[in-house]
Amino acid sequence: MNAEAITMMIVAMVALWGGLALAIFNLTRHDGADAEDFHRDL
Predict the structure, then answer these.
(1) What's the whole-model pTM score?
(2) pLDDT, tens digit (0-9, with 9 covering 90-100), for 11-41
(3) Is the pLDDT of residue 3 over 90?
(4) 8 pLDDT above the threshold of 90
(5) How far apart are CA 9 and CA 16, in angstroms?
(6) CA distance readout (Å), 25 to 11, 13, 19
């Protein structure tokens, strides 16, 4: 692999794993009070 391919691979990995980390952080930041107030008729 040449340097350009390795650079692009690192950029893609940072984008994917960083997005996953931000999504998990966003989900854990909420206290879950919204889930208790949400009632759904089935």
Answers:
(1) 0.60
(2) 999 999 999 999 999 988 876 655 566 677 7
(3) yes
(4) yes
(5) 11
(6) 21, 18, 10
d(CA 36, CA 39): 8
* Res 31: pLDDT: 61
- Phi/psi for 39 (5° steps) reads -120, 135
The structure tokens 């950029």 sit at 11
Could you give the residue ranges of the DSSP H alpha helices within 1-42? 3-29, 33-37
Residue 28, φ and ψ in degrees, nearest 5: -80, -20
3-state secondary structure of 2: coil
